[in-house]
């Protein structure tokens, strides 16, 4: 069945719309058409219902997103009186536009770029606006017209997104982008794995004749990478939003040291736009446990936070597909290293169970468990952790395999040899990291199988010992019963012989 699905995906052609290389100026106006709730609606309700399908479930639809957004008070944005916990900068915003790519020396407008030159000498852009912002400041900036501000290329890095920050984004987004943003935030909040490219389509009705036709009004490039991170610290760092979990890691057998903690995290990107000139990138990262540099550091050093500082903000990437690949490459490498740290540390912890093979045979551990079943409980807890990690890795690898069998074709570019070679380098780096994740998945799977066998040995050996002890107890009880009977008979004989009690008491 899987082979049939992959074969169909390979036969299906995923082609990037050539119109995206041309400026779609008539569609730009729709990007300033903001979400407008009805008098009886809240902002959250309007956002969740905007352009929804009539076939969507009436209940439990986007329940996680609704619960998250309803923690914020929209009045804090419009009145500019948020509480102190909302005033910390959460967003690094970078707005700019590119005039050099479409206006010639003769003043005429040209609607296509020469990506070969952009790859070597990218323009800095004009009307540049870069700033650290809290939720209220982001709301005010996004309420302004993007066309008037010249914010055609909008890049947004969000560290530990809060409900109010999400409210600022959804309440100021274009109506056409509401379905895309709904799916993005729902996947992010639910710790979902996802790789996808989709076309933003709009169904129109001609007045005469009455014919429906579908038109591409943009694109959406998206990925979600959940992972676990291992950190050594004096205290457990909790997610202030209560969104991600954290807990203690398997202790080291070498003795007391700083506690080790396992943190749940995710990095997500949505890049959506009208064409290759007018687009927005949202990147949500979680840094509450020290996963990367602070948002202030990125701003002070003019580094591209979405790539983790891999690129400079002075050399922006203007092609949306190339920017998506560069971010995915860097973030996947980050996630792969975090996974490697965890699996290698687990391997080191589990070497203790092999001491009977490679260690001192005279100190070989007993197969039987103690009365409190400490060894069995230890194995069970370790297996539960391994299964949690293994299942997460399985989801990442399978999601990428599905994406690689079809939608990755959107990143094929013709007549741009140097650009295509650069993109193929990105894809080769991604595949290399995926190969490493596949190896780590196999390691976890083998450890689960080995520990399951050892736990079964403990249980079986302990059961056999308990059975043997029970048999011995039964034999002893039998002997005591026979002795009791004999003693009773002796007493009865003595009584019948009428011997005075003083002789046998």
Spans where pLDDT lies below 50 across 5 or more residues = 204-208
The gyration radius over C-alpha positions equals 33 Å
Question: Helix fraction?
Answer: 40-55%
Give the rounded overall mean pLDDT. 83
Helix/strand order: HHHHHEHEHHEHHEEEEEHHHHH
Number of strands: 8
Describe the sheet with the most strands.
Answer: 8 strands, mixed
Helix- and strand-based class?
alpha+beta
- The number of helical runs is 15
- Tell me what portion of residues adopts beta-strand conformation: 15-25%
Q: How many separate domains make up the residues?
A: 1
Task: State the separation between the terminal residues, measured CA to CA.
Answer: 87 Å
> Shape from CA axes?
elongated
What does this structure look like?
With 505 residues, the protein is α+β, with helices and mostly antiparallel strands. It has one domain. It has 15 helices and eight strands. It has helices at residues 2-11, 25-28, 43-49, 63-69, 75-78, 115-120, 135-143, 146-149, 163-172, 178-189, 295-300, 320-350, 355-358, 374-404, 417-496, and strands at residues 91-97, 126-133, 153-159, 194-205, 212-233, 246-248, 259-273, 279-285. Strands 1, 2, 3, 4, 5, 6, 7 and 8 form an eight-stranded mixed β-sheet that branches. Helix 7 (135-143) runs parallel beside helix 9.
């Amino acid at each position: 069945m899987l082979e049939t699905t992959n074969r169909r995906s390979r036969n299906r052609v995923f082609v990037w719309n050539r119109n995206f290389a041309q400026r779609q100026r008539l569609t730009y106006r729709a990007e300033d058409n903001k979400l407008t709730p009805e008098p009886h609606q809240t902002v959250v309700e309007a956002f969740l219902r905007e352009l929804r399908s009539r076939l969507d479930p009436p209940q439990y639809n986007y329940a996680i997103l609704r619960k998250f957004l309803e923690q914020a008070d929209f009045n804090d944005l419009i009145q500019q009186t948020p509480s102190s916990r909302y005033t910390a900068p959460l967003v690094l915003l970078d707005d700019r536009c590119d005039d050099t790519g479409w206006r010639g020396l003769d003043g005429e407008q040209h609607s296509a770029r020469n990506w070969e030159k952009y790859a070597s000498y990218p323009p800095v852009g004009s009307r540049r606006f870069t700033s650290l912002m809290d939720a209220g400041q982001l709301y005010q900036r996004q309420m302004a017209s993007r066309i008037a501000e010249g914010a055609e290329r909008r890049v947004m890095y969000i560290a530990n997104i809060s409900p109010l920050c999400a409210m600022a984004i959804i309440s100021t987004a274009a109506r056409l982008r509401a379905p895309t943003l709904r799916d993005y935030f729902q996947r992010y909040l639910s710790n979902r794995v996802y790789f996808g490219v989709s076309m933003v389509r709009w169904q129109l009705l001609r007045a005469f004749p009455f014919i429906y036709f579908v038109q591409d009004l943009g694109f959406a490039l998206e990925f979600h990478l959940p992972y676990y991170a291992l950190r050594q610290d004096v205290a457990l760092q909790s997610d202030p939003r209560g969104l991600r979990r954290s807990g203690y890691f398997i202790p080291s057998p070498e003795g007391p040291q700083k506690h080790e903690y396992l943190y749940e995290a995710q990095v997500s990107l949505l890049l959506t736009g009208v064409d290759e000139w007018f687009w927005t990138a949202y990147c949500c990262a979680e840094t509450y446990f020290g996963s990367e540099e602070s948002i202030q550091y990125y701003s002070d050093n003019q580094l591209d936070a979405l790539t983790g500082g891999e690129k400079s903000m002075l050399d922006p990437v203007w092609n949306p597909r190339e920017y998506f690949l560069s971010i995915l490459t860097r973030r996947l490498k980050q996630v792969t290293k975090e996974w490697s740290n965890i699996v290698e540390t687990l391997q080191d912890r589990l070497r203790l169970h092999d001491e009977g093979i490679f260690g001192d045979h005279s100190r070989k551990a007993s197969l039987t468990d103690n009365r409190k079943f400490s060894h069995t409980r230890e194995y069970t807890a370790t297996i539960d952790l391994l299964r949690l990690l293994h299942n997460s890795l399985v989801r990442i690898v399978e999601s990428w395999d599905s994406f690689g069998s079809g939608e990755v074709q959107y990143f094929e570019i013709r007549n741009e040899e140097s650009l295509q070679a650069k993109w193929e380098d990105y894809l080769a780096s991604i595949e290399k990291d995926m190969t490493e994740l596949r190896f780590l998945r196999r390691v976890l799977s083998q450890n689960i199988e080995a520990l399951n066998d050892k736990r079964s040995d403990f249980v079986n050996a302990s059961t056999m010992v308990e059975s043997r002890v029970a048999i011995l107890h039964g034999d002893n009880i039998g002997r005591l019963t026979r002795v009791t009977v004999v003693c009773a008979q002796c007493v009865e004989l003595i009584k019948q012989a009428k011997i005075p009690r003083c002789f046998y008491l």
